[in-house]
Amino acid sequence: MSDIELPGCTPEPLMNYLKALGVFRLVAEDREHGDPAARLSWSGGKAVLQSKFDRDSLMKFFLEDYRPTPIVAPWNGGSGFYAGGSEPLEAIATSTTPRLQHYRDTIRTVRAIVPEQKPKDDDKLQLLTACRNELNDEVGGWLDSCFVLREDSTSFFPLLGTGGNDGRLDFTNNFFQRLNDVIGFAAGDAPTQSSRDYLSSALFADTIVSLGKSAIGQFNPGGIGGPNGTQGRFEADSRVNPWEFVLMIEGVLLFAGSVARRLGVGGSLKAAFPFTVDSVVVGSGSFCEKDSRNIGKEPPNSGELWLPLWSQGTSLSEVKHLFAEGRAQIGRSQARNSIEFGLAICTLGINRGIESFARYGFLRRNGKAFLATPIGRFKVEPRPKANLLNDPMLVRWIDSLRAACVETDGKKDRVPARFKSGLRQIDRSMFDFTSRSENKNNAKYLVDVLRSVGRTERVIATQGLGYFKDKQFGWRIRPLQRLNADWLLQTEAESAEVRLAASLAGIRSVRKKQILLVGPIRHFLEPVEGTKRVDWTRSSDLKTSSSVWSARPSADNLAAIFLRRQMEAFRQGLDDVSLRSPITASLDDVIAFLEGNTDDEKLSDLLWAFIGLNWSNLKLQKSERPRTPIPIEFGIPRLLVQRKSYRPQPVSHRIPEKNRTILRIMWRMADVGGATVVPDPTVFHHLASGRDTAVADCVDEAARRLKSSGLLVTGYRNRRQAGQSLNVQSTIPPERLLASMLFPLSDRDLVRIANTVLYPPESEE
After folding, report:
1. CB atoms inside a 10 Å sphere around CB 52
2. What is the pTM of this model?
3. Strand pairing of 46-51 and 147-149?
């Protein structure tokens, strides 16, 4: 075997890819003149044919021995079987060359079953069925490439438009004409020099030829002509190399296969064809929103075709099997759109030695004409963490959002732009993870997905409940819930915002004898009810909901949640503001928030995403972090959020370099006895007052409350001076200081605060 590189057969444009498949199929299927042992691979951006042929013998095979596949489309008006445009078909029907014998037989068979007039609607379906039953297997591959017959409808392969035509361009009639350009129709005709030059240019891209004026359709956007298509003229003609068109159409037949195996495709008709999915507006600047929608009864605006590229030489039977399967698997489901296809590749849903995919989108050009536009190369790399994107609860939530965003009311689009924008952000972030993520930055891309999901959940909860309420079917979209806890485990170390949001989202409800006293944190973010199975609060109860989140800045919203939770806790007779959470915030992260060193928008986005996690049995490993000095204006009031008892304890420390022992008085948590801190809501009302002295007043009030519990704060030299103002001058905004009180802290961090702000924190010998 020899390797023949085919520089004219490249992954882009679509025509060149299909040419490679056509050359390979024709060589490997012809047992008399071809090479059944031939193999195909892709290397260096071009196709490589491994066969017994060298360059000259390969040229001779196509010029002298190639027998065209009988390709017809009698269901189309321009197919030549009806009035108008019949000359090219008649030329084949009256030909005498043995190379077209199968073609002539097929035309006679079709003429016996076609009606006198172009069929429409039900008659067209009957003709498609008759063609599939009457025509032989050689034509059957072409038919399977054009359409799939269902019980009461027909699905068309976007690669071939609507059954072998692109708008008014009938591919089969054009095929007839291009055959006449490259092979003789009379017995004994020898190959012409122009045919030889066209073939050399099509295969090896080494011969300059003058292209004939002819339509190319959607397969080569650069060759369709049109306005500004050339210099010196307002409009250029569409031109094509006839051998390229012939080999391209022959290559399409490799997309035919075991149709029955492709019918388990859920609700997507496009997915019935190999590597074809619904389009989602991500991954290319060529897309706009309309490219992912169906308009009226017209054909879909843009399906997508993902063409596989492989580097190992592959036999024809293996390639046919690949295209016959033609699907990417996500768990037990088949990928339905470009997002799911990219996800399936990352999770090893494709495992056939494929190294990459060339992605094409079918974009509307005008009327019913489309362009097969290259929109990127997708490298196949296993990313196990991509399984998170296939979280069943997340997929169900996104599916319901997608379904709601395509609903229309007649000609007027009822879907507000804010929901479509949220869906696009989710799609874009998920696609970015599947296409750009690397092993070292998976967490960053996963966080981007969480942020887009959380942001959309917030928009739905605060601005969309009126729209998503359906009188007949209930809620179109339910609250985000029961997501895989691995989302947090995989992103916990990414940033302080992730850890802080997780600690807030985990704040649990307070119950007494199965009676709910104070709800979990999400009850204060959005109008929901229930804790295990969450649903939107009934519309009549929206005004009495605990939710206080609004369009204010994030810090203001967190402050409002703290005050509301505090009010409900004391109204229910609780001792303190319960902040029980399976995850406590790092004190250093909280101080970073206080000092404005965190991204508040990111924090709020993640909080809204994390409230949808399944929090049962979730545990995170606490890691040691650098200890940041604790601001006194935070530490003093923070001790009054929860009811705790503290007791001083002497602790001896050995100092090796000084060779002596130091006795230090340290505070510790007291299980029994000690000084008990009794929370008082009036301390925090100072922070919500809006006064310039809000922070100083809060700290002074908190210091007095601690003194009444038997605890003196640093700054009071003795008990006689306790109660006087500490004159705290702080740069921390009051609303930010109030918001920081909401973060759950561990007992160890509370002890650290006590040892920082309570007297005496100094060492004694």
Report:
1. 13
2. 0.81
3. unpaired
